[in-house]
Amino acid sequence: MRPSVRVLDSYSLISYFEGETGKDTMIEIFRATRDSGDPLLLSVVNWGEVFYITLREAGRDRADQIAQLISTLPISVISADLEQARQAAEFKAARKMSYADCFAAALAKLRKAELVTGDKEFKQLEDEVRIFWI
Fold first, then answer.
1. 1, part of any domain
2. What does pTM read for this prediction?
3. Residue pair 8/118 in contact by the 8 Å Cβ criterion
4. Cα separation of 107 and 67, whole Å?
5. Is there a domain that residue 112 lies in?
6. What is the count of structural domains for the chain?
7. How far apart are CA 134 and CA 132, in angstroms?
8. Which residue, among 25, 3, 31, has the nearest Cα to 13 in the 3D structure?
9. Mind listing the pLDDT tens digit for each residue in 26-41?
10. In angstroms, rounded to a whole number, what is the distance separating the alpha carbons of residues 42 and 79?
């Protein structure tokens, strides 16, 4: 797997934690990131999305456990700033996507990074953001 700057969306993390399709690819991405030292980024908005989905579906204990697990992975959680919010808003205004997904895409575009996902919603952004499909 070619190391590069990568951005995760909530789909990629949930697939990893829930053992869904893409889990093995995510394990390889985590290993490659650890070994290469290349950045693996996650927007704080997408962190929140993973947390709230887990909280809603599995309860507080599991959500707290997932938050702790994320902190042990080679991931840098990136705070949303005005530039990222503006780019996310531009994506949201022009496309039918969730607002949280727009933050992942905005972070990838602004950092000239590859977005790691299996969410087909991102197909509409392939002309603006490099996608690594899991």
1. no
2. 0.94
3. no
4. 20
5. yes
6. 1
7. 6
8. 25
9. 999 999 999 998 889 9
10. 9
